[in-house]
Amino acid sequence: MKPIRDAIEALEPNGIGLVAMMALGEPDLIPLWFGESDLVTPAFVREAAKKALDDGKTFYSSSRGILPLREAIRDFHKRTVGSDVGLDRISMPGAATLAVVTALQILAEAGDNVVVVSPIWPSIFQAAQMIGAEVRFARLDDDWRSSPPGWHLDLEKIFSQCDARTKAIFIASPGNPTGWVMKRADQQAVLDFARMRGIGIISDEVYGTLVYDGTSHAPSFLQIAEPDDNVFVINSFSKAWAMTGWRIGWLVHPARLEQQLGVMTIANNTGPTSFAQYGALAALTPKGDAFRADMLERCRAGREVVRKFIAGQNRIRWIRPEGAFYGFLHMDGLTDSLEFARALVEKARVGVAPGSAFGPPGAADADSFVRICFAQDPALLAEGLSRIERALATM
Ligand SMILES: Cc1ncc(COP(=O)(O)O)c(C=O)c1O
Question: What residue owns the CA closest to ligand 1's atom 7?
Fold first, then answer.
């Protein structure tokens, strides 16, 4: 008898981790590999969590998150996407990563399949694999001929892969690593299709407010879904508020699942970290909105640094991201992004994420890309990019 399930045995470390393991924390290396800014969480958020600790908020928390925080999340949705999301739909399983796992646990089981719009953050397809579901990739088309070049979603690629065992369509918009932003009309088409076929939608909106078109939020499924649609929207404090280490995010789910979410948040994590929630509460005040605005400007400046750099390159191009904080850089002639990322660590002392990590596994076109996070100090970012340029010249 086998000691563990095949799906678990088959799990392999993703390429981002493999590269980062080589030199994590080494001071001479410029780390652009992870999805986080180099900013420390703002002081007023840290102070609120410290106060919570001093006030003895060290016990188990309400399983779906403390009420004032869930109310503040409800207000956040009102002011960013204009949707009135009831408290019966807001639960806090832990970080967004755990919200992803929870949504997949709700919708799919072994033998089912999940259609994922890719390239995408690898933990998403690994989470589906963990529960034994098959992952089917619907890759965005990279159109280099249009002006400007863009990522395009071919809805047929999603629809044609759905069959009787398809339980969820997973979409992250703004996307990691592409920065692609899903259009409202496409969201509506996917929602109509999913309703008709009884398929759930998991919409990962952790970069929702990090958009460069002047709007307060990318188009959200919250704006079109009814409270009882089989739609799950994931959000996080990690990105826009520089709180990656806090492990706190939330899940908007159908109203009818309130009771199940109570049980699942207890069984999966007992509830979110108590004192972290008081920090998160501070993040949702006007001071937090001001911080988010500064963060967006920092990302915009980083995006501009990358744009100028690429303008002077003949082997590197990109599709300028409309949201999130990544540059997904295409390198002409590159055929093994993991080897290249490893060489960049060893020889150039800069950390990038290999394109192959973002799926589909084994796809040749993924291997011509590397991902960098540009939510960084502009001078450090510029130095990181010139290191990549110098290394590329010798390869
Ligand atoms: C699309 C996407 N969803 C979720 C997460 C994870 O968020 P959290 O830190 O809240 O687990 C990330 C992190 O990179 C991400 O890129």
Answer: 96
- Burial degree of 361 (CB within 10 A; 0-12, 13-18, 19+): middle
Residue 133 to residue 113: CA distance in whole angstroms: 5
Please tell me whether residues 240 and 295 are part of one structural domain: no
pLDDT per residue as tens digits for the range 73-90: 999 999 999 999 999 999
Question: Is 329 near ligand 1, meaning CB less than 6 Å away?
Answer: no
Q: Pairing state of beta strands 350-351 and 353-354?
A: unpaired
For ligand 1, whether the C-beta of 204 sits within 6 Å is: yes
Claim to verify: residue 272 and residue 292 sit in the same structural domain: no
Number of domain units in the chain: 2
**Residue 312: CATH number of its domain:** 3.90.1150.10
Report pLDDT digits (tens) over 79-136. 999 999 999 999 999 999 999 999 999 999 999 999 999 999 999 989 999 999 999 9
Q: Could you tell me the CATH number of the domain that includes residue 67?
A: 3.40.640.10
pTM higher than 0.85, yes or no? Answer: yes
Token pair listed for 214:
């002047």
Q: What tokens does 372 get?
A: 């960098």
Question: Is the minimum distance from the CB of 206 to ligand 1 under 6 angstroms?
Answer: yes
Smallest CA-to-CA distance from 241 within 95, 65, 103 is with: 95
Report how far ligand 1's centroid is from the alpha carbon of 96 (Å): 6
C-beta separation of 168 from 108 below 8 A = yes
Last residue of a domain, one of 232, 255, 284: 284
The reply to whether ligand 1 has any atom less than 6 angstroms from the CB of 272 is: no
Residues 6+ apart with CB under 8 A from 94: 247, 248, 249, 265, 268, 269, 272, 273
Give 266 Cα–ligand 1 centroid separation in angstroms: 21
Identity at 130, one-letter amino acid code: M
- Strand segments, DSSP code E, in the chain are 30-31, 90-91, 113-118, 134-139, 141-143, 150-152, 166-172, 200-204, 231-236, 249-252, 316-318, 326-331, 350-351, 353-354, 369-373
Task: State the distance from the centre of ligand 1 to the C-alpha of 362, rounded, in angstroms.
Answer: 23
Q: From 336, 299, 316, select the one nearest 387 (Cα to Cα).
A: 316
For the chain, how many residues are written?
395
Choice from 118, 176, 180, 248 to test ligand 1 binding pocket (greatest atom count within 8 A of CB): 176
C-alpha 121 – ligand 1 centre gap (Å): 8
Q: Would the CA dihedral through 191, 101, 108, 65 be positive or negative?
A: negative
